[in-house]
């Protein structure tokens, strides 16, 4: 039998969302609930829409059927991070959380999770090597278990592109040219000037601006931070190539004017309808949107293609979801059993949801799962190829969230103010980075 999971307490880092929260407070209890027969049920939280929660419900039902372990499942979508903090402060953390890899930094530095002994998790040897990166903290140790991965791609109105006689964009200039055509040449043929080139979820809320811009920043040869030795970083956001890339992005809003109106207040949930209702023709987003757009727009009316390479090459944001075994749980055996099922071939297949929409496993992390055999959709093979060849994650600082938020606020302001000084603004942002790096004790 696998050895017990090792949970290690960590000292809280100043400046986090709940500064008074300490590892000792967190470790004192999780929120397992007793079922009707008196046995404690393992509590699981996921960041899920109602549609994806239905898929998780099926996965959990199969887990309980196989193991006898009962699960109190709580899907949360709005204000997920805030609710985790509230649960921690109340000493009622769930036993297990499935959420974005972006939770890793805050969860680690606040002591919400411990370290993972990979050898103690049955099936960990079946996980693709690259996926472990999203579960590895700034200290080089594992603090979570990968569950799903994904990479950004361009969604383009194929019917519009073909009607206008345009090719799939291969360069940044091609991309801008196609966006202009979608905006100026009436691709829907209704005689109205009611179409736009690019859909951008550009709100600074939850760091959306930085999330969307990251792929273009990297493809432009820029970066957020530069590694300056093991666990040490220096700002790169004000480098010449970063300035050039951000200037190009500012041009989409100001010079080329090919972005949907109100983009700088859009979060993703509010952005999606612009694409599916025929108001925007180009959308850089994740593969999880294919099921929705297939249904609302029609699979034959749009295409999924790799983002064109920029001066810095072909690089896009690659993210994923992790399984977090929360500290303080009285059910460490149940935590481990659930994690082992979720990463198993059976658990991954169930999470992929076959050919149906709303998968909670996008690219499976289990190397023994044949993605095309499950989905029967070549677009997923493209996404897997992009992830393998071109995807990268945000820098592995102890807590990326403050950087992401500060970056979003700066970029949002630059895109809203066309005469703003890009170089000067990024210089000020770099100074903020240096302060945050020092606070997190990772300044190079």
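Q: What amino acid sequence fits the structure above?
A:
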């Amino acid at each position: 039998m696998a050895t017990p999971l090792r949970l290690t307490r960590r000292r809280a880092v100043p400046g986090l969302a709940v500064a008074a929260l300490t590892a000792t407070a967190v470790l004192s209890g999780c929120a397992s609930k007793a079922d009707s027969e008196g046995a404690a049920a393992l509590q699981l939280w996921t960041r899920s829409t109602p549609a994806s929660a239905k898929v998780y419900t099926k996965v959990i039902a199969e887990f309980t059927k196989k193991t006898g372990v009962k699960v109190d499942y709580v899907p949360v979508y709005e204000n997920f991070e805030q609710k985790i903090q509230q649960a921690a402060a109340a000493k009622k953390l769930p036993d297990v959380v499935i959420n974005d890899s972006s939770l890793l930094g805050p969860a680690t530095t606040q002591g919400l999770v411990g370290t993972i002994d990979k050898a103690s998790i049955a099936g960990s040897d079946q996980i693709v090597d690259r996926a472990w990166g999203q579960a590895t903290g700034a200290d080089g140790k594992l603090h979570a278990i990968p569950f799903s991965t994904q990479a950004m791609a361009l969604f383009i109105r194929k019917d519009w592109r073909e009607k206008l006689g345009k090719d799939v964009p291969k360069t940044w200039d091609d991309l801008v040219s196609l966006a202009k055509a979608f905006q100026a040449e009436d691709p829907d043929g209704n005689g109205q000037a009611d179409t736009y080139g690019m859909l951008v979820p550009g709100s600074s809320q939850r760091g959306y601006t930085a999330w969307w811009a990251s792929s273009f920043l990297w493809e432009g040869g820029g970066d957020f931070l530069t590694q300056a030795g093991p666990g040490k970083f220096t700002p790169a956001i004000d480098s010449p190539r970063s300035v050039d890339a951000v200037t190009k992005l500012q041009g989409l809003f100001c010079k080329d004017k090919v972005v949907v109106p109100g983009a700088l207040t859009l979060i993703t949930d509010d952005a999606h309808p612009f694409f599916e209702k025929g108001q925007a023709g180009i959308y850089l987003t994740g593969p999880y949107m294919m099921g929705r757009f297939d249904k609302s727009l029609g699979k034959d009316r749009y295409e999924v293609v790799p983002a064109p390479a920029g001066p810095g090459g072909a690089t896009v944001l690659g993210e994923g979801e992790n399984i977090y075994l929360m500290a303080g749980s009285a059910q460490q055996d149940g935590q481990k059993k659930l994690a082992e099922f979720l990463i198993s071939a059976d658990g991954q297949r169930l999470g992929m949801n076959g050919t149906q929409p709303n998968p909670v496993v996008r690219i499976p992390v289990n190397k023994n799962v044949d993605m095309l055999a499950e989905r029967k959709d070549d677009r997923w093979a493209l996404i897997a190829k992009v992830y393998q060849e071109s995807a990268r994650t945000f820098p592995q600082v102890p807590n990326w969230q403050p950087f992401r938020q500060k970056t979003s606020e700066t970029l949002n302001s630059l895109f809203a103010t066309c005469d703003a000084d890009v170089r000067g603004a990024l210089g000020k942002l770099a100074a903020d980075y240096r302060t945050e790096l020092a606070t997190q004790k990772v300044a190079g």
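Q: And what stands out in the fold?
A: The two ends are 43 Å apart (CA to CA).
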